[in-house]
C-alpha cells in the first residue's frame, strides 16, 4: 500500500486491536478522506482514463481482501466498520463510473459534426412528403405553458443549430441512400477505448464486493455524451427534466413547427445511433464489465428514448388545427421509429418502452382526431369573409385554406387512416372510401355548404349570375385541387361526378342569368312586323354592351374552365345573333356588329382585372 500506509501503520502500531484492524483503519481512512473536489478534472482516473490515484484503489482492494478472508467476526464492531468502509468505497467507485467518459462525442461537436453524423447515419431531415409548406398562418401572441416555459422562435434560432439554416445544408442526405448506412456508420467511433480498462477495474471490484445490484441501479444515471449531443438539438432546459409533465399546447404554430422538426431530426439520429452504439459496445472486450454491457446499454438507451417520449407527450393536449400537420408528422416519426427501437431492449426495459410507446401514440392520435374535428367545424362555420362585389366571384380564401389543408394531409393518409379507424370513425360515405377519404369528404362538404350560404346571402334579392359564377369557380377549384392532391381517387368516382354535374349546372345557370336576357331581345321581333327587327337589334346591341361591360372583368382563374365558359357564351349569343341576321338580311346599316365582332368581344371575358387593364 506504499509509504502512506506504512506511515499510518506506524501511527497505529501502539493502538489496541489486531493487525487486521490496523490495516482496516488505514484503508478506511484513505477511502473516507478521499473526495474529488467539485472543480477537479480528475478523480481516480483522469481525462485520459489513466489511474491518477492508485493508492485509493489499493485501499479499496485492501478492504475487499479483508472481507474475502473473513478477517472479522460477523457481529463484531470491526466487521461493521469494514462494511461501512466498503459501502463508501463502492459509492466512490460508482461516482467515478458516472464521471467516466465512455462515449466519445468529439466527432459530433458543432454544426459540422452534426452534419457528419447525419451523413454517416443516413438520416433524412425532410418531413414526410418532403414538403415545407405551412398549414397555419401567423396569429401573434406569446408562448407559455402551464407547467413549462417554451422558448420563443428567436431563441430557438439563436444557436448555430438554427433549424432555419438546416434545409440548405442538410437536405442532400436522404433516408435509404444505397449503402450509406453500411459504409459510413462505423466510421463514427463512438466509444473511448481508454475507458474500457476502467470499466473492467470498476466492475471487477463491484463484483468482488457483492454490489452488482447497486451498480445496475447506477446505470440509470449514467451519462452518454453521444445521446446528449443529439438531444441538445431539442434545446431543453432544466425545467424540462424537473417537470413531471410538460405541455406545449399554448405554443404558437411557428414555435411548434420548429420544435417538432427538431424532435424528428433528434429521433432519427438517436434511432440509428443506438444501433451503431450497441454494435460497437458489444464488439469490445471489457473484461469484468462484459456481464453488465447489456444492462448498461439498455439503461442509457432508455434514458434517451424516455426524453423523446416526454417531449412528444407535451403535444398530446394540442388540438389546434393550425398545429395539426406538425403533430401528425411527430406521430408518424414516433410510429416509424418503433420497429428499430423496440428490438434494442429486453426484460424490464423492453416492457417499459413497449408500454410507454403505445400510450404516447394513443394520446397523440386522440389529439389529432380532435384537431381534425375542429378543423372541419371551423371551415363549416367560418364567417370571416362574405361574398361581395369587392371580394369578387373568384376562388374564396376559405376554399384555398380548406384545400391547402386537404393537400397537406393527403401525404399522411396511411397514418390518418390508422388514427381515424382506431378512433372508431365511420366511413360515412360510399363503399371503399377510406377513413381519411371520409373525413376529407366531410371537410369539403362543409366548405361547399358554407360557400353556398355566403353566396346566397350576398346575392339575395339581386342578380344570380354572380352567385353561379362564384360557385362554378369554387367547385372547379375544389375538383382540381382534390385531383392534384390525389384525394379525388380516394373519394370515389361518384363524388367527382356529382361535382362535375354541379359545375355544369352553375355554368349553365350563369349563362342563362347573364346572357339569356341578351338573346331574348332577338326573340321579340315578330316575323313580318315592319320595323320591329331593327328595334329588336337595337335592343340587343344595348343589352349586349351592358352585359359585356359588366361581365368582362369577371374572373375565371382556371384556364380550362375559362375557355369552356367562353365557348358556351359564344354558342349561346353568337349562334342566336347569326341566325337573327340570316333571318333579317335587309337590316343594312342597323347592323352594328358582325358575328366575328361578337366573337372577338366575348373572347375578352373572364380575364378579371387583366381584361380591364387591357382596355384602358
TrEMBL record:
InterPro entries named among the record's database cross-references: Cullin_repeat-like_dom_sf (IPR016159), Exo70 (IPR004140), Exo70_C (IPR046364)
Positions in coiled-coil regions: none
GO terms assigned for molecular function: phosphatidylinositol-4,5-bisphosphate binding
Domain Exocyst complex subunit Exo70 C-terminal: 261-603
Keyword terms: Exocytosis, Protein transport, Transport
A single GO BP: protein transport
UniProt keyword Transport present: yes
Entry's transmembrane regions: none
One of the Pfam families matching this protein, by short name: Exo70_C
One Gene Ontology CC term in the entry: exocyst
PANTHER family: EXOCYST COMPLEX PROTEIN EXO70 (PTHR12542), EXOCYST SUBUNIT EXO70 FAMILY PROTEIN (PTHR12542:SF25)
Family: Belongs to the EXO70 family.
Function of the protein: Component of the exocyst complex.
Name of the protein described by the UniProt record: Exocyst subunit Exo70 family protein
Source organism (scientific name): Setaria viridis (Green bristlegrass)
Species lineage: Eukaryota, Viridiplantae, Streptophyta, Embryophyta, Tracheophyta
